Amino acid sequence: MPAVYAALAGLAFYPVPPLAEHRLLTCACADSINQTWFLGWTAHALSAGVNPLLTTSMYFPSGINVLSNVSMMALGLLFAPVSLTVGPVAAFNLAMRLAFALSGTSMFLVLRWWRFSWIPAALAGLIYAFSPFMIGQGTGHLHMTFAPIPPLIVFFLERGLTGRWSPRRSGLLLGALAVIEFFISVEVVTTLIVVCAIVVVAGWLVDWHGLRHDLGRVGRIALWAAVVAVPLLIGPSLYALKGPDSFTGPAQSVGTFSLYRADLLSAVVPTNLQLLGPASWKALGSSFVGGNGSENGEYLGIPMLAAVLAVIATYWRQRAVAVASITFAAVFVLTLGPSLIVDGHPTGLRLPFDLIAHTPFFQNQIPIRYSLYLQMTAAGLAAYGLDRAWARLNLALKGTAAALGPRAGQLGLALASAAVLVPLVPAVPYASAATNVPTFFTSKSVRELKAGTVALAYPFPEFPVDTAMLWQAESGWRFRLIGGYAYRRAANGTAAIPPAVMKPALIQAILADAYSGTGSQGLPPGTTLEEAAQALRTFCRRYHVGVLLLGSGGRFPGTVRRVAEMAFPGDARIYPGLEVVRIRGG
User: Fold this and answer.
1) Mean pLDDT, the chain, whole residue set
2) Quick one: pLDDT at residue 336?
3) pTM value?
4) Any alpha helices (H) in 53-131, and if so which ranges?
5) Beta strands 479-481 and 453-458, pairing class
6) From CA 138, how far away is CA 296, in angstroms rounded?
């Protein structure tokens, strides 16, 4: 099955090759560039012998705390050979494909270890790997799409809770996986803690009489997990929370995160992520979760939901099904966020996520992302029902090869499985765009810049136009950037994304107005070219800018070039798609 999942992942990104260095997902901007930058950063920092946890490569001169961001350092190490030899864009493209393949393989293997038949396990892996959650996050969120660890966590926890493994074995493996996941996605670690707690509580609800014994076992498992995780994570956690350039509070406001929550109808109304479905339904479904299509991973479809509910009703007395059912219901409620919304209308009814949203350490969770576990438990429950039904039919067929009834039953199961899968078929392949990185950054010409040179770029790097970060990554981090797109520490100590306004503020205003302003000249109203040139000279002296990297795009790129040439006459060199202005003494 790994080969099948890998082939399907390749089709999802067709026709972009797995090691493509000149194309990125969607618009080749915003999150896809941010994640490409961080994926390549770890390999670069370690190979260059610089601190991988703190850098002024963006947001110069203040810099960023890398661990306070979605740094994906484990993936950076895993894909370092590709980043260092082919490039960070190729590493990102390969990682996205392997994210789908490895996640599906993990789900498949877990169910096979639970002795599920091959076909139900394979279908569950398929549903999990290409679920609406994965397809949505696959538009650029590698840290969420690379999800082979959650099924393994549940499996190792089950082995320990049921006594099939010793608490030490289970706990040590859980601790090791938690450490790895921490360096992929801290958010997934925190949501896994909540989901594991739900599984434990569900087990107690199903078998209340064994509570005393289970409490001791849970405690020993947690202790052994802590033996591994605490020594390895306490340092990085403190560095992310209290280290240089760290920030206080959540990365964004609780209200902002809570916008991304499921509507009560999200599970049964398709979105534009699905290939099939009435256009009016898709429009309605896509309006949920704040209209953010990449985050709306709740959709199950009526056939899948019906299959899951049928399995729950039929096999409720099986402890595994009961625990999975309670977990399914609990994570569904969590995806709804702090208060209930029905058909886009707030009801004001407060929900359990409201407590999580205000709990330290869990404040950075996005409610709708619990749909990862909704899809995982739904796939597992559907596979359980298919496995039981398939086993009964196989038993009936023994010694009665010509029997019509059992064979008709097999055909019925195949048709039912298809009915569940068809509404979930994703609308792929993904859109992609050319990176259009000027050859200056990938050729020997970039070596003309002294390593660590401070650069002021146009388009100015900020969300969503962070093209200069891609130039920087492709150059091997030859220069440092003013501006960027990541989480940084604001003046008040909280998190911020927009670059700080640096003096003279006129320069960032010019860059912004030239790219997307409404003026007729690309300059703020009342500003002359001479005033702009003088402000640029002052800005470059103050921040030790050594080079201006002037690309194309936006409304008035020519205005920026005229200002630069007036400020630093005779210092410009023209390259394909780029003007490089060297600043003497910068």
Assistant:
1) 91
2) 95
3) 0.93
4) 73-78, 80-85, 88-113, 118-129
5) parallel
6) 12
